[in-house]
Design brief:
The structure is a homodimer. Chain A is α+β, with helices and mostly antiparallel strands. In chain A, 19% of the residues lie in helices and 33% in strands. Chains A, B: This is Flavin-nucleotide-binding protein. Chains A, B: It comes from Streptomyces gilvosporeus.
């Protein structure tokens, strides 16, 4: 993010106090916002008819609210509003290759958000939320593509989750066994980074070849995919 | 995967029948195995003290079983064995850029596995499970790095989840609005692929520069990260 918002502490409720992996817990709002800004797919945990489900879905994060499509879990979220969810966004940055198997791990950034999503019914807010969601994954497309018709808008279930209660965990850097007795083993240790990048635009096979991709897509192709 | 296993149908229980996105549901075992083989981080959904949590964690999949560390959810999984979980593995392959915002989407492969994980207590099975888990993310490291001591093994909680009940969803290909009235809008449409790749090995800053990385790591650096 180019202009991080002012730091506001994340809440530290019973379930976000980092009982485990305490050293990896972060508690500033900028870190949460940065993790959310760097992605566009979350894993939504919700209980549907007594069954816990974890569903991947696109999201948009803006101004203290996370938006996602209600359709992904319509059986529960539309049928039973008021259900608590956990939404997790994770970026995998690399493998931590230690001298011992026991110290192997992953460099990552992850945010878990807890709350009760609210169905967005106001048409203006729904448009704003869908814009946020669309621009999160495909910036520039809201102004380029055809916007939702009134009928499409009515067919879209959008949910809003406040970014009030969240747990952020980050691991960075080399393995932790550099000063353990294992360092004497003479084994290589370090990190193998994992990178995500946008590839080359693939036009719809049915597209008129005279139609060129818009600049915002041309500029994105081939670039790193995460902030 | 170079040698896909023989196709066994996934179960079609009430919760894996693809009520939504039916066209994207897949029901063969090879597709599940392929999705699991292409990753090493899952999102584990579990209810802990009445709170639903979605936790990212590494896994290993082998011969009908998914292994993961019990420590990631020790409060529930160790304290309350028998709890049902949902484990989801997702690969994002690209953005689907349609003529209309409404038809925008994501190309992806995702597997959701339902079940009750079993704590692995037998020392031999635990070693085999940890080998599977280690080799899933860092192939070659089990034979290269120092293996777990008896003390480390005792300190490691490993869980085994049978790959019996699963739901696989896949979306591939161009946008779906190529033959809709929107095709007349003259807008570009297609797919922007998202690629993952391994970067350049970063040695631990404390490492003796005379220690070279082993061939299995040298060969992996710079290659595509997914099958």
């Amino acid at each position: 993010m180019t202009t991080p918002p002012p730091a506001r502490p994340l809440s530290a409720t019973e379930r976000t106090r980092h009982r485990r992996l305490r050293e990896q817990g972060r508690a500033d709002r900028a870190e949460l916002d940065s993790i959310l800004a760097a992605g566009f797919v979350c894993h939504l945990g919700v209980t549907v008819d007594g069954t816990l489900m974890v569903v991947p879905t696109v999201y948009g994060a803006d101004d203290g609210t996370l938006y996602f499509h209600g359709s992904v879990a319509s059986r529960s979220l539309v049928a039973a509003p008021g259900a608590a969810v956990c939404v997790t966004v994770t970026h995998i940055d690399g493998l931590v290759l230690a001298r011992s198997v026991f110290e192997h791990g992953v460099n990552y950034r992850s945010a878990m958000i807890y709350g009760v999503p609210r169905p967005v019914t106001d048409e203006e807010e729904k448009l704003a939320g869908l814009r946020c969601l669309t621009e999160q994954s495909a910036p520039g497309q809201w102004d380029y593509a055809r916007r939702p018709s009134r009928k499409e808008l009515a067919a879209t279930a959008l949910l809003a989750l406040p970014l009030d209660e969240a747990s952020v965990k980050v691991r960075t850097g080399p393995p932790d066994d550099g000063d353990s007795p294992d360092a004497e083993l003479g084994l290589w240790a370090g990190v193998l980074p994992l990178n995500a990048s946008w590839g080359t635009l693939r036009p719809d096979p049915g597209l008129d070849p005279a139609i060129a991709p818009p600049p915002h897509l041309v500029h994105r192709a081939g670039t790193a995919a995460q902030a």
